[in-house]
Amino acid sequence: xxxxxxxGKDASANGGIRLRILESAKGLFAKKGxxxxxxxEIAQSAKVTNPMIYYYFGSKEELFMAVLGQAMExxxxxxxxxxxxxxxxxxxxxxxxxxxxESVVQDPDLSRLFVYTFFGPDRDRLGLAVEDFGQNDCFKGxxxxxxxxxxxxxxxxxxxxxxxxxxxxxxxxxxxxxEPIELDRQVAHRLVKLFLDGAGARQEGS
Length: 206
Prior knowledge:
mainly alpha; Tetracycline Repressor, domain 2; disordered N terminus
C-alpha cells in the first residue's frame, strides 16, 4: 500500500524516504542482481526498516520494477524528444550515442542495472520482455525515419537496427568493464559515420 500524500514537511519527508530507498535499491540491484539482493540489505543501505520498504513498495518485485520504471520513464521522455526533434538525421544519431555515453558516466549504477537485467536471468525471472525496454522503440523509430528520409536503405531494416544497437551499446559496456576508453562527441560522430557508410542508401549506379 502506497503512503498517502501530504503537505509540507510530511510530504517532503515521505518523498525523501522513498527516493532514498530507490537509490539504495538501484545500487544493490546493479551490483548483485535481483535474486541476490535482500530487503534487509536495501533497508540497511537506505537507513530505514524492512517494514518501511514494504509500506512504500509492497514487495521486492515491486521495488525492483519501480527502480526500472523510474529510469525507463526518463529514457522514454528523452527518446520521444529525440525522435521528434527538428534536427538533421545524422545529428539525431549523434545525440542517441551521447545520451548513452553520458548516462553511463553520470549514473553507472543505472547502466549496470539495465545490462544486468537485460542480459541476465532477472529478465526471465520477472517476466520482462524486450518491449518493456523503451530503447527498442527508439532504435526502430530512428531506422524507420532514416529510411523515410532516404538516408538508409529500405532493405534489411532489422539488421540495420542490430548494427546501430551494437555500435551504441558495445562502447558503453567496454567503459562499464573498466576499459580506458573516452566516449565523447567526436567518437559519437565517428561511429555515426561508420554506421551510415555501411547502412546508408545506395547511390545511383552503385
